[in-house]
């Protein structure tokens, strides 16, 4: 409990210290703040009693905040949220170290906001109270909007405003739904309470039509954040315009809030809704995979390419989650962590060459293996991890997500029937082939081939000379922990998968029953198509 | 008679303090001594703080019970709220009144002329208006209510005219005065009809009469029309549809520190008056406990009143938000935003006792702090000696005036309902109350409106913090006085710190929202037994969706 609050509040204290202290020491104060936060969280994880026991949530109580509305300060972790919080805390110091040379103006504000961003993300993962979660979830928007709007590229203001408005609209729906769920609990029990587990116990007893709407409304909020196909348009622009560290946190931690929201709220709270809408979400996820992959193929801006590949990868993650069996869910959670590592690292790599060449256009820059051999080897490693090369971390998650989708059939041999099945897996698998193609094309242009450097370097010469041609020691120190994590998780995925498994099973506990009930209703059709599910819901 | 009066008089201690201070300030304003004239705002502040202290000392349970009030503890929350925000409003006006005159006197360009100074009058009117708003809380009858509302309004017309030195002040004052007079006529007519229908001016007797009417054939048409007209007239004070149209012009034309006053004090007074009138009618689904400890049901808001409030709420928030979207002037935008917030606040009126009223009071507190923060930040700045008005004045503000840029951003974040600022808690508390009354439609409307409001509040945060400075904004300087700056910082800190004691504040608002037990006369007590049986019958049907909420509705959270 104390450790959790330390990891949440210490960065805020550090942010105050940054604001008050001198500009020179701002970056080191920020770095120390995030290290303490990471240290506290690691210490907590070290003594975490529930690695193999999903039923047990240690330290979930907290002091009451607004007793009349049942809002409390309760924080606690299960393995999934702990892994994601660790991921965010792990990336924070790397991001801050990665900004040392790229952020030269308004540094105090930058580091201050970065620290606040880090603590609100950890708060969102740690919260066991729905309103507390919302506070963390929503507040991430403020520092991120400012980081993009102040430190971003040429279209930064448009990007920041677009991101803010999309996410804000989505989360207003989410807030209304959370309050509605609280109201249902109030009706059932007689008191307001926003404890997530208590709410879940209430909502799974609601009629399935109510659950359908709860699920749909929560889904809208989280789908913006994930982002799922029709709501993804804010993401590439935000990524493109954000400063490097902003992109890293956006892709690795903030987008995970969306998938984590599905894992923590939408899926367990409204199993009837989740079962009915699983095929809709799965279809949207597959569209996202294919569509984003095709865009990546023709993308010449390296950063945009990675941003769109994020859309595709998170589509796959959502597909695994909505296969509604433990295999898919384990894969999805595992993939969340590993996408955070490999995509974060890719953004860092791209940021490093952008700092040297001031362009991300792969038509202008290329063949950098000759100029930056150390950088090139890291780049290749992380791209391979992102593609899903066996032996690296991306592979396990992808295979489990696809495998989960594959066995999510109506005859349900795994004990978890579903409505997806092999065809979904095959189409989504195409996306992985695309991913290999576009990422290899990126590598081919950027790393290999003849050396191409922009000629009009004169304008940037003054800032470019400061940096060594290849990445320096600081940058190597940033990328090395990420590389170790990628390789280690690729070779030793089992401890983490074992820790996730009970949580995944617990989350899906109500699904076999619900899916079977739905199948009984639509008996005769081998695959409940999109039309079927919506018709059923309206007739209910 | 004198014994009966004395508890009332003790309850009026804060008003007496303000009145004495008002007279003192008016006289001292004529002093030739510059130091004395400069101290007027601080005397005003001291009086307001003294009145805050006086409230918990005098407004005890015993005194309130013997004073025969409709809502015995109303003043316990509303008076300190008014005076507390009032202190901030005084601070942000320091140095604005009589500024040109004082400057020329200081430079020796003209001699001091007691006929031309208005500072004393300004703060006297400030205190009188504040006193009117406080008097509302003690209202026992319609006459008192009417006089108190007028005491709130009349000084504000003058404050708009004399508060600044701009040319548009007079125009705004005239607009405000004529439209205000019209609204007064409307609600006075409503009061008259209410009297005609119930035969009494006393709130407690009006309530009894309405109870017996509703137990007969329902509240009669005359009373319904009377209540509706009263509410429509009061809509002027709270800047709600259909009486909202003056707000953008007047808010823009008035000096900024007076605008901040208009955005809070008359609005709080209007909502308090509406709560009092609606408490006479009561809300459905709630019970009252009579003097024998027996629960009897409130008859509920008659359908036409409920429907009209519903329409007012939705139209007000939508119109306010859409209007705010289209503005290029910051003050006009804040005027529309103030309209939109009235729309949210009406949610509390519809939900009613006690959850809704409690949420309304709490939201008024949140609204007061955050809206004053934005006006204070504007009041702390000027461009070539004139007020900040357009967004281009604010572009890139953080380079030259970082603190004010941040205060604008914080107030915008709080106004839009971004956690963890106070506005967020006000909003979820209103929504929770609306859920208690099954008003899902209203919650949905408010949620959609909050989403729209994100568009323009974002502008208020992004333009000062991020936008590159424009030619206009280069000329922006801070006003000579530091007090508006301090007021802005205090409000900004308030929006961040107050959520941590939200539980205590809500509890205080809750106790104020209680209405007194109903005491029926002998002739009416016969029908009481009928109503009890009716109530039992209905509670299994219509009310089954919502558990009957006794005055102690929201139970405290269960311990984990």
Tell me what you see in this structure.
The complex is a heterodimer of chains A (540) and B (560). With 540 residues, chain A is mostly helical. Chain A has a domain at 291-513. Helices cover 72% and strands 1% of the residues of chain A. Chain A is built from 22 helices and two strands. The longest helix of chain A is centred in the first third of the chain and has 34 residues, at 156-189. Residues 526-540 of chain A have low confidence and may be disordered. Chain B has one domain (2-542). In chain B, 71% of the residues lie in helices and 2% in strands. Chain B has helices spanning 2-11, 13-28, 34-38, 40-58, 61-66, 74-93, 99-106, 119-136, 142-162, 168-198, 203-215, 221-235, 246-253, 256-281, 303-325, 330-351, 355-379, 391-394, 397-400, 402-416, 422-436, 440-465, 471-474, 483-497, 502-512, 522-540, and strands at residues 287-289, 295-297, 381-383, 386-387, 476-478. The relative contact order of chain B is 0.10. The model of chain B is unreliable at 522-560 (pLDDT under 50). Chain A binds chain B through residues 60-61, 64-72, 74, 131, 134-135, 138-139, 141-142, 145-146, 149-150, 156-157, 160-161, 164-165, 168-169, 172-173, 175-176, 179-180, 182-183, 186-187, 189-193, 195, and chain B through 413, 416, 418-420, 424-425, 428-429, 431-432, 435-436, 440, 443-444, 447-448, 450-451, 454-455, 458, 462, 465-467, 502-503, 506-507, 510, 545-547, 554-558, 560.
